[in-house]
Design a protein that fits this description.
The protein has 240 residues and is of the alpha+beta class. It is 25% helix and 31% strand. Strand 1 and strand 2 form a beta hairpin. The chain is globular and about 45 Å long.
């Protein structure tokens, strides 16, 4: 004669199996997070997740982080003109902003100045409080177009924070039609940035210095003209 299981026994067994599945799933997620590789910028203690499809721009060189400017950039693999990029820009250590609010207002004034000069035409600005790890920050979204004709639309999302005593801008910008398909991916990168150490973080790669012995006589170069399909270079904005 076949024994029948008591309903309470079935319920307990189901709960045990369900909890076991959730526990194993949580462990898998934890291991996945621990395996995530990050770029680490030592000078400001910032870590940026290294996601598939993105790579470090080796042309960005910052021999002395104390002078400020763009010290790190992520670009898309097989990028085209106007593809989204993510820049990390720091203030000159000799002239740091007094606080987060003044640093933010300085950057907003710089953008408005570009608009007054006719270099860009701003169509939307959205400012919201944000956090970069445990630190206060602001997130600002700009929608603007380039040049007098305004035919090239740009979307830009920037985080503003004070790290290691000076202002830091993390700017993601690109042509609007190329930015929107990657908006979720970019938001994931910005949201997963950290200001604490990690076992799986790696220092960002600094381009190798040129060997003077291999250099030929310097040749005069014609300065390259800035393309009107590229976002405004914020390397100067936020620095004094």
């Amino acid at each position: 004669m076949q024994k029948r299981c008591h309903p309470a026994y079935k319920l307990c067994l189901g709960l045990i199996l369900g909890l076991s599945f959730l526990w194993l799933s949580g462990c898998d997620k934890k291991r996945s997070a621990e395996r995530k590789t990050r770029y680490r910028i030592e000078s400001i203690g910032l870590e940026i997740p290294k996601l598939k499809g993105w790579m470090q721009d080796r042309e960005i060189q910052q021999e002395n982080a104390a002078v400020g400017g763009t010290i790190f950039r992520l670009i898309r693999e097989n990028a085209v003109s106007g593809s989204p990029r993510i820049d990390v820009i720091i203030e000159d250590s000799k002239n740091p902003s007094l606080d987060l609010e003044s640093f933010l207002e300085q950057n907003l004034r710089e953008m408005n100045k570009l608009a007054e000069e006719g270099k860009i035409s701003i169509t939307q600005v959205v400012k919201t409080p944000y956090h970069l790890g445990p630190r206060r920050a602001f997130k600002v979204r700009h929608e603007y177009s380039l040049g007098a004709s305004g035919t090239v639309a740009i979307t830009q999302i920037a985080l503003f924070a004070i790290l290691d005593g000076r202002g830091v801008t993390i700017s993601a910008a690109g042509r609007t039609e190329l930015f929107h398909p990657l908006a979720h991916n970019i938001s994931e990168i910005l949201a997963d940035m950290s200001t604490s150490g990690s076992k799986n973080s790696i220092p960002f790669i600094t381009p190798k210095p040129i060997d003077p012995a291999s250099m030929t006589a310097p040749q005069e170069k014609t300065p390259a003209k800035k393309s009107l399909t590229e976002p405004i270079d914020l390397g100067k904005i936020g620095t004094k």
